[in-house]
């Protein structure tokens, strides 16, 4: 019990001390630095992400071997805006390799780092994937990079996802994986809004 209390006090100190310090620095100006406060609030990138809220049909192609035809499957995705507009939550339901498959995604935009963020978990693995992305066209196309678990070889493998928002009703996501310095396409997802 004593250890738990010490742990709780430590966590509170780590979280609250920087806030108290910032408030003390700006005490005469009404609290926390307005520029810092502004970066904590949703911005235009979040408004663009929120446009994806709704139900989507998803057509998937997956390549186990680039020399062979892809496996194909269909599913549905429900997007909802969460955390007061800061994140977009996806619940995907469909099939993967002939088995029922559910995936959860959380997409956002980190205004401090100036990067898009994407986090994914699913019912097929015990691994999670966390990526960051950038855009050269105001969020229409976002290129995410990072690493994910290598289920066959063990360890981690470098991945790249390219999300292209063709319109408010259609989005394409192409996924690539890198093995031995060579990048190959692993998956294609075509999202079409259900009306």
Question: What's the helix and strand layout?
Answer:
Elements: H1 2-25, H2 34-39, H3 44-50, E1 54-62, E2 71-82, E3 87-96, E4 99-110, E5 115-122, E6 129-134, E7 141-149, E8 156-167, E9 170-179, E10 182-193
Antiparallel strand pairs: 1-2, 1-10, 2-3, 3-4, 4-5, 5-6, 6-7, 7-8, 8-9, 9-10
Brief summary of the model shown:
With 195 residues, this protein is α+β, with helices and mostly antiparallel strands. Helix content is 19%, strand content 51%.
Description:
Helix content is about 20%, strand content about 50%. By secondary structure, the chain is an alpha+beta fold. Strands 1-2-3-4-5-6-7-8-9-10 form a 10-stranded antiparallel beta barrel. The longest helix has 24 residues, at about 1-25. The radius of gyration is 20 Å and the shape is globular.
């Amino acid at each position: 019990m004593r250890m738990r209390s010490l742990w709780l006090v430590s966590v509170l100190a780590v979280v609250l001390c920087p806030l108290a310090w910032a408030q003390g620095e700006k005490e005469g100006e009404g609290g926390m630095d307005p520029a810092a406060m502004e970066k904590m609030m949703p911005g235009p990138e979040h408004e663009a992400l929120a446009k994806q809220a709704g139900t989507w049909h998803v057509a998937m192609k997956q390549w186990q071997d680039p020399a062979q035809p892809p496996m194909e499957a269909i599913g549905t995705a429900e997007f909802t805006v969460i955390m007061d507009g800061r994140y977009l939550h996806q619940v995907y339901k469909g099939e993967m390799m002939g088995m029922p498959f559910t995936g959860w995604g959380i997409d956002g935009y980190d205004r401090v780092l100036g990067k898009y963020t994407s986090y994914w978990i699913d019912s097929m693995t015990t691994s999670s994937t966390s990526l960051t992305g950038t855009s050269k066209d105001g969020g229409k196309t976002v290129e995410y990079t990072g690493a994910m678990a290598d289920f066959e070889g063990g360890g981690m493998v470098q991945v790249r996802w390219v999300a292209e928002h063709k319109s408010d009703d259609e989005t394409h996501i192409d996924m690539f994986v890198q093995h031995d310095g060579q990048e190959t396409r692993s998956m294609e997802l075509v999202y079409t809004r259900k009306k």
